[in-house]
Task: inverse folding
């Protein structure tokens, strides 16, 4: 019965699922979880750097969402709320451990994450080739504030204004962090500044 109820909710948009979850339909919240868990996991993994911690971040993100179900917006802000919560939980975890762990590309792929192939970029052809693993290791070496905006913008496709809203910072700060993060990557990957 639960599977039938859950599958009948798949056609609903996030706002409708939130409304139903707020009225006590547990299957509606489960549908939100299944719809967005991969995106939350991708954000978490890029920030924390390992699958185990990323899974913990996903779990904590959805626990917080469930606890705050009554205050979740029904105007389409669910994804932004989940990504912001995951980002904050992941940052807290990184700050708490301060070990600088890195994850291998194989571990990320075996966890079901699609790693974008950056090897076809113009800079990859103009400069030395870097592997996806080198890119991910370089990404994980970037200061947290810059890595978060890079991950959200380039890996998740979140617009600059949405990132500003999610993180509660001005758009100019997001743009600055993007620029500094890109520069950090260039220096780390190529050993020099590339215009």
Result:
């Amino acid at each position: 019965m639960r599977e039938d109820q859950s599958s009948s909710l798949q056609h609903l948009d996030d706002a409708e699922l939130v409304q139903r979850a707020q009225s006590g339909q547990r299957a509606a919240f489960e549908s939100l979880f299944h719809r967005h868990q991969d995106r939350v996991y991708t954000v978490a993994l890029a920030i924390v750097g390992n699958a185990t911690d990323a899974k913990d971040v996903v779990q904590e993100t959805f626990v917080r969402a469930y606890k705050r179900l009554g205050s979740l917006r029904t105007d389409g802000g669910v994804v932004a709320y989940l990504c912001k919560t995951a980002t904050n939980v992941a940052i807290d975890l990184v700050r708490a451990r301060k070990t600088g762990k890195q994850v291998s590309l194989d571990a990320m792929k075996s966890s079901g994450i699609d790693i974008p192939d950056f090897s076809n970029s113009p800079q990859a052809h103009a400069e030395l080739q870097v592997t996806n693993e080198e890119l991910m290791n370089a990404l994980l070496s970037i200061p947290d504030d810059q890595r978060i905006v890079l991950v959200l913008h380039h890996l998740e496709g979140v617009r600059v204004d949405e990132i500003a809203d999610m993180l509660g910072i001005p758009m100019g700060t997001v743009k600055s962090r993007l620029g500094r993060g890109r520069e950090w990557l260039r220096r780390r990957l190529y050993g020099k500044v590339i215009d």
